[in-house]
Amino acid sequence: MPSEPQVEIFGSPQELFAAAAKKFCNAGSSAIQDHGRFTVALSGGSTPRGLHQELATHFSSQLQWDKVFFFWGDERHVPPDSSDSNYRMAKETLLSKLPIPPDNIFRVPAELPDARQAAAKYEQTIQKFFRLEPDSFPRFDFILLGMGPDGHTASLFPGTAALQEKDHLVVANWVEKLNAFRITFTYPVLNHAACVMFLVSGDEKAEMVRRALKDPAANLPCQKVRPVDGELLWYLDKGAALRL
């Protein structure tokens, strides 16, 4: 059975990020104890910065960071040093602040001129890391997601081809309104995870949060994230939860 959302509401962005960091570390400790490593997919956008800073500042001693392996749920089609790069944001706010071996960081090769090739190479990287059998999907321990103002998550935008993808792990998704490709995990990967956390902050997101959680007919991309055997968490500050 697909998971039902577990909604947690916090009084301020700072409380939201502290709670998310605590959950991250608890999930990580359990995963390391259970199977020796913690596999994580990070998200882009501005909201994760607060979580990254919380982890780096107040939770740096809470995990065996040499056993944490970082991937990205989506990436812009830009080089890793671009100000638009999700990898660069994570490197500056989290990865460079903690004792994480370089070999534990698996960024999307988004500097490749062909976004489809970048997606294919990243899919191969994941298949190799997880030692996947053909036609199988990885089980990430923790996937962090945000939600855009149009209800998109990762780079699964309304009306785009990637919403229908059932076979690939990673695809290059053409987003007409951005006039650009985005490289993104597909639903099968998101929905095989042990834990998915939506992290949403700010009252400008409140109406879309209401639709996502209260209106099944809204047909938003974020609503199709429903892990088949895992936790589905929606962590909100009180601004984002204003309309619930």
Question: Layout of helices and strands, plus pairs?
Answer:
Elements: E1 6-10, H1 13-35, E2 38-42, H2 48-58, E3 68-72, E4 74-76, H3 86-93, H4 115-130, E5 142-145, E6 170-175, E7 180-185, H5 187-190, E8 195-200, H6 206-214, E9 231-237
Parallel strand pairs: 1-9, 2-3, 2-5, 5-8, 8-9
Antiparallel strand pairs: 4-7, 6-7
Helix pairs in contact: 1-2
Give the key terms.
six-stranded parallel β-sheet, single chain, Rossmann fold, alpha/beta, three-stranded antiparallel β-sheet, 6 helices, 244 residues
Q: Which fold name corresponds to the CATH topology?
A: Rossmann fold
Name the poorly predicted regions: none
The helix/strand series, from N terminus to C terminus, equals EHEHEEHHEEEHEHE
CATH architecture: 3-Layer(aba) Sandwich
Q: What's the total helix number? A: 6
Tell me the number of structural domains.
1
- Rg of Cα set: 17 Å
How can the largest sheet be summarized? 6 strands, parallel
Proportion of β residues?
15-25%
Number of β-strand runs: 9
Could you say which structural class the secondary elements and strand pairing correspond to? Answer: alpha/beta
User: How confident is the prediction overall: mean pLDDT?
Assistant: 97
Helix coverage percent: 25-40%
CATH class: Alpha Beta
Query: How does the overall form come out from the CA principal axes?
Result: globular
Q: Which strand order does the major sheet show?
A: 1-9-8-5-2-3
The termini sit apart by 25 Å
